[in-house]
Specification:
This protein has 200 residues and is an alpha/beta fold. The chain contains 6 helices and 7 strands, in the order βαβαββαββαβαα. 32% of the residues lie in helices and 26% in strands. Helix 3 packs across helix 4. The chain binds thymidine-5'-triphosphate. Nucleoside triphosphate pyrophosphatase that hydrolyzes dTTP and UTP. May have a dual role in cell division arrest and in preventing the incorporation of modified nucleotides into cellular nucleic acids.
Length: 200
Amino acid sequence: MAELFLASASPRRRELLAQIAVPYVTQIASIDETPLPDEPPAAYVERLAREKARAGLLALGGRDDAVVLGADTAVVLDGRILGKPADFNESRAMLLALSGRSHQVLTAVALVGGGREAARVVSSDVSFRPISEAEIEAYWASGEPCDKAGSYGIQGLAAVFVNQLQGSYSAVVGLPLCETAELLGEFGIACWQLPTQGPH
Ligand SMILES: Cc1cn([C@H]2C[C@H](O)[C@@H](COP(=O)(O)OP(=O)(O)OP(=O)(O)O)O2)c(=O)[nH]c1=O
């Protein structure tokens, strides 16, 4: 069976993959994450997920028994991509823009290996209640927003801002587990499965 490698430095992705009991080895690969001019958000996340997976495979010397998983998450407001905040001012601007309304979270997962490549993009709608300036300052001081797309983590303190989610919770955190399991199956990699029914 092929060996799975996770091309990600994100602790969230490691935890999510571990959650569905898939054995893997981490193989971090860094790529340029600058969007192309006028690149649509869904195309952007899919391209980055594929590039991360390809870079991981390259770093492994193109091992033919390796399958590499890459993923990318972007917060999208009115068609505009919100990445990770560079500083407090950017974080404040993002959270004020997200306050009291809904936005999309796009996450792509890609698998590369054995001469094949495949990817899925999952879109979820997240609504925030209105957020005050004081809350934004306190949230920044918690340290949580700085390494997260859109400057928040639904799995953390920012859960109190979220009044509605339509879509995939795991995708918002960083890896759509249902679609990931399907893709892994297509590449012949076993993950957690419901026990088969024996004869009665
Ligand atoms: C919206 C949202 C994002 N995030 C995180 C998931 C990703 O780690 C990060 C988006 O940045 P990414 O560039 O997708 O990923 P990364 O740089 O953290 O890791 P790598 O490229 O090595 O795989 O934001 C949350 O943890 N919770 C959330 O609610």
